[in-house]
Design a protein that fits this description.
This protein is of the alpha/beta class and about 300 residues long. Helices cover about 50% and strands about 10% of the residues. The protein contains twelve helices and eight strands. The model has no long low-confidence stretch (mean pLDDT about 95). Belongs to the DapA family.
Length: about 300
């Protein structure tokens, strides 16, 4: 099957994958296969692996390569897969990115390196990244200043996609950021600046509004990926009210999942309860749910199920 690459018109739901671990902390290969199947069954258009939610910073280089290879082999070209490759050094980023592309990845996701939020520094860094990866590797620019500590202006995003043809996608996770989506959409697809695909993160917390502002879809890891798919499809069909009705049914549990740090443990526990993975463990240092947390989650999941059936 021909390798499918992301481009400037990529749209839909690219689910951010968790990385499953066993109780002793090893990467769980059997659960990796189950999780891939779970995402495929939910109807997602693509996947993104080894992002922040995937605890990529807690994996060894060997584990990252093994996980990427297993996911890509399991998917076998059925949907495109973006691979997170952010690294402190360009050489490491290049080596891993080339490995991922050779294994069948659809593109590489890269965030700015920590440091002063100086436009020239960010642009200079991505020039080096693009030069190292070459013109045949599509890049998703991850804009997540709440985690990276690097705010990036609309002007810089437009400069990057205008001057570097490899940068075809924006993963938008600024918050507040709705006006930023509007500005990027208005500033791209012009005579001067080519269109850029915009997929949004932040757990899907603002998804209906993001779609109305011109986003092309979602790139996030909400543990009910079918909701993301249904909301995007309803919006595409010209029925934003239906999209918001679906979204509203999941909002309490989506909000609960969005707690900084702790939310990853919630997300993995939901995936475990839904049969997608065998163990909800996060790698240390990482949160764990206590008995009260588990009881809260049980109630939220039961209420969500009732609301969804009522739709």
């Amino acid at each position: 099957m021909a390798q499918r690459l992301i481009d400037r018109d990529t749209s839909g739901v690219y689910i951010i994958s968790a990385t499953p671990f066993t109780e002793n902390g090893a990467v769980d290969e059997a659960s990796t296969d189950r999780l891939v199947d779970f995402y495929l069954d939910s109807g997602v258009n693509g996947m993104t692996i080894l992002g922040i939610m995937g605890e990529a910073n807690k994996l060894t280089a060997e584990e990252s390569r093994g996980f990427a290879s297993r996911v890509l082999k399991r998917i076998d070209g059925r949907i495109p897969v973006i691979v997170g490759a952010s690294a402190a050094g360009i050489d490491n980023l290049k080596s891993f990115s080339r490995f991922a592309m050779d294994e069948g990845a659809a593109g590489i996701m890269v965030a700015p390196t920590p440091g002063p939020a100086v436009e020239d520094r960010i642009i200079g860094y991505f020039r080096q990244v693009c030069e190292a990866l070459g013109p045949d590797v599509p890049i998703c620019f991850q804009d997540f200043p709440l985690t990276t500590g690097v705010p990036v202006s609309v002007a810089t995003i437009l400069t990057l996609t205008r001057e570097m043809p490899q940068i075809v996608m924006l993963k938008h996770e600024d918050w507040p950021g709705l006006s930023k989506i509007s500005a990027v959409r208005a500033g791209s697809g012009t005579a001067e600046t080519p269109r850029i695909s915009i997929l949004c993160g932040n757990g899907g917390l603002f998804l209906p509004q993001e779609l109305s502002r011109g986003a092309d879809g979602a790139m996030t890891g909400f543990a009910y990926p079918e909701m993301l798919v249904q909301v995007v499809e309803a919006h595409r069909a010209g029925d934003p009210d239906r999209a918001e009705d679906i979204y509203d049914a999941y909002l309490p549990i989506l909000r609960y999942e969005q707690q900084p740090g702790f939310g990853l443990a919630v997300r993995k526990e939901i995936l475990r309860r839904r049969g997608a993975i065998a163990c909800a463990r996060t790698r240390a240092p990482g949160p764990r749910l206590n008995d009260t947390d588990q009881a809260e989650l049980t109630r939220l999941m039961e209420r969500t199920d009732r609301k969804v059936k009522g739709l």
